[in-house]
Amino acid sequence: MPTDKTVTSEITTAIAQLFRAYSSILFLNNAWAGFFIALVTFFEVNIGTCGLISVLTALMIARLLQFPKIETGLHLLNSLLVGLALGALYLLSSHLLILILIASALTVVLSAALIALMETDRQLPVLSLPFLIVITVVALAAQQNSQLIPMDAPAFTALYQSGSSIIGPSANQFLMSLGATFFTSQAVAGAIILLVIAIRSRYLALLALAGYLAGYCTLWLFLDIQNYPLLLNWTGFNFALVAIALGGIYMIPGVASFITALLAAAFCALILIATQKLLFVYGLPVLALPFVVTTLVFLIAMKARFSIRPPWLAPQPNLPEINYENARLARVRNGAIHSVPLLPPFLGKWQIYQGFDGPHTHKGPWRHALDFYIKVDDQSFQNNGATLKDFYCFGLPVVSPAHGQVIRIQNSLADNPPGEVDTKNNWGNFILIRLDNGFHLLLAHLQNSSISVSEGARVKPGEKIARCGNSGRSPQPHLHMQIQETSALGSRTYPFHLQSIVKHKAGGLSEYLLVNIPEVGDCIEAATIDDKLEKPLHMPVGQQLTYEYSEQNSANKTRHTLTVELTLSGQFRLVSGSGVSGRGASAAFVEANGVLAFFDRQGPKDPLLDLWLLAYGLTPLARTAHQWQDSPSAQLFPANFIQRFFQHCFRPLGCGLTSHYTRNWSASEKQWRQQSVHQLQLPQLGWEVKIESLIDPVLGCCEITLHDNEKTRKAVLIETGLSSDEGIPSWHIDTNPHLN
């Protein structure tokens, strides 16, 4: 029997889903935004009431039939649009009520079918396509029903009514077109909608205005709009929605995506011109047809591109600020989008013999390539270097730097004596691998008969596949690596970079680099995992870390618990407080390539979680990593009101911090002491905070202290453990005795 708490939670969830349906029409997906938009629909009581009845019906039908992806709100928003449209066409009556109930149920079913067909199979959004199909069928059928009471000359179907002889792109007309998104073409309604959009995303508000202007200008060029005085009022929202969808939701914000959004809005205007006369013949309004057609056409075209140059599609549709931050952090941690990430193709420490744009052979179309060898005491060989065995790298293992499939090998050429070259076979013995991203990797100058994989074999990072040799155009043993655009041997090279390496410096210091293009003379190695670091920093599902958090000049000490949870999509998240149900702050994390990395911070403000992420947000698991850099989101910075104000002014889409980390083993404390400096840099302005943290070999992240100009914040681990699960017992350790 459900408890009162369960029932209350169900009701709260249903109400939130209902209001999110209103906001999802504008891609905002926020219950509070939807609440204010719902109020706007009641500017016309008949329209608002019909819309509310329709969305409530859809909510019950979707839950009753248990359709998947109910949480996306697509079933509800399309039914909501159907109800609003019927409310704009007819007065509410018993006959209209029955029609709304039937149409809402049909829309839910059609939405589920289209989601399965388009989103699951083709990764295309359904948008408001179910609404357009259902309202067209219902409107045509309703024309034969004399029991329905039509509204007096529904404005959005009366395109030829007399009106002002001059319709310019005025603010009033723009706001009226925004209101028409919800069938309420009033300037006040549009103003509220624009304010709601701007509160959620100022960039989306800018796109709405820019898209509207682009569509209006196109309409003015190709149509005598003086003969259609109300057309723009009731269809201009199509231009705004297209720009919002393409420029901010489905693409990563930038100059290229902004221009693409304006071109799409212009194309949308042409679609509007082509369809408005045809639909008017049948007494049908244009509605959102131009928006749906334009958005789908552009998304299909963008998905068909084989290019990693802008504009870029976002991995998941989201608000532009989130898309921008995810892309910015990905560039920092994974390298430029137009560069292919690779791991080092060797074991141990190697040097760069020739880099990009090298003086010998890395020129022109072959400029993006790296040559590796080993030097000891400033020379690459021992004894007198007369034989190949004198060279330190000769015969050492070569490993795969990425996932891929071997498509071609050469394994039978002899190795050159030192100082000699084979100009007939420039690449010597080689392995050509087609990577999973479509590019091709060439490893060349391999040792005769050393290749241990065959053509067609799958390889993975770190797998031994050959040995370093001196075949081909190679005067001394070394390993050549390049990325090619095609499978033709020696074709044009493509930019790439190395990931998760340690660069060794003079004095025994070493710097961990998550992304790097090494230069001639650099001594690098792959960041190998240290068990003594990996074990205390490993975060299994169910792990709980309880901290005592305090701030300087405050007697209050509060307890905060961070818990590791696994989402339905398989993503690990560190959650503070209420869990991933939506009320708690959280961040996703991965352990890969020898590093623990956090990203995708979600939820409300949480001082402890943000402090934790600044301290450990990017932590290499290699003992040799003494220094490294990162650029986490500036939202983690403990900014005051003035700092946050300037940040919003100068970086409206968000920005990253400049963060420098150092880590050393403290023999006296028998712990790693990790220190970091985080700078928030804006034009002519800058602030910084310093963080000291301790990593215990047994307990893990046990203490964090933050210093800034205002106050000191401190978090001390007081308990760690693992929550119980089926077949897995719980355990807890009280850390107070250890820390005291």
Explain this structure to me?
By secondary structure, the chain is α+β, with helices and mostly antiparallel strands. It folds into four domains: 12-151, Ammonium transporter fold (Orthogonal Bundle), CATH 1.10.3430; 201-318, no CATH class; 340-520, Glucose Permease (Domain IIA) (Distorted Sandwich), CATH 2.70.70; 531-739, Lipovitellin-phosvitin complex, beta-sheet shell regions (Roll). It is 35% helix and 24% strand. The protein has 18 helices and 27 strands. The strands form three sheets. Strands 15, 16, 17, 18, 19, 20, 21, 22, 23, 24, 25, 26 and 27 form a 13-stranded antiparallel sheet that branches. Strands 1, 2, 3, 5, 6, 7, 8, 10, 11, 12, 13 and 14 form a twelve-stranded mixed sheet that branches. A hairpin with an 8-residue loop joins strand 17 (572-576) and strand 18. Helix 4 packs parallel to helix 6 and helix 9 (202-222) packs across helix 12. The chain is globular, with a radius of gyration of 31 Å. The two termini are 48 Å apart.
Mean pLDDT: 86
CATH topology of the largest domain: Lipovitellin-phosvitin complex, beta-sheet shell regions
Strand count: 27
DSSP strand content: 15-25%
Return the CATH class of the largest domain. Mainly Beta
CATH hierarchy: architecture of the largest domain:
Roll
Low confidence ranges:
157-169, 578-582
What's the tally of helices?
Answer: 18
Shape: globular
- Determine the N-to-C terminus distance: 48 Å
**Structural class, please?**
alpha+beta
Could you tell me the radius of gyration in angstroms? 31 Å
How many separate domains? 4
